[in-house]
Amino acid sequence: MAYLQVSPQDEQTYEWFRQIFRDLANFLTLATGEPAYPRRVYGLGNDVEMRPGVVKKEVVEIFQAARRPGSPKELKFFDIVLPLPIIQAEIAGILDSWFQNAQRLRSVYDIFFGTLFNTEMYLEAHFLSLCQAMRAFIA
Fold this sequence. Notes:
By secondary structure, the protein is an alpha+beta fold. The protein has helices spanning 14-32, 84-87, 91-102, 106-117, 123-138; strands at 40-51, 54-64. A two-stranded antiparallel ribbon has the order 1-2. The protein is elongated, with a radius of gyration of 18 Å. The two termini are 35 Å apart.
């Protein structure tokens, strides 16, 4: 399990955050080789006075994922496709590139990650979907 914080410089819409979380989940899925998705998403709300002179932002739960079937696989270092210690020095550039290309490659991401997340797909359909994603990437 990982904890990530997304803090945009300007105020953003719910749809913007939803797409960022989707793209992050896709990146983590590619990096780990296992489907990744947000379990919970929290946002900061209004200022709340905790006691006289102490004001904090209220924490609002925006999203809580339904449980996925089966228990999550415990990942070992050698199972991970892109281990953090290996890419750590370049992680900022990798993520910048990932998000910059996300809009242009949206259809490729959708086919590829839709296939990885769908564990109930027949083997032949799984193979054909991955071929379609590869073809869309090349085109």
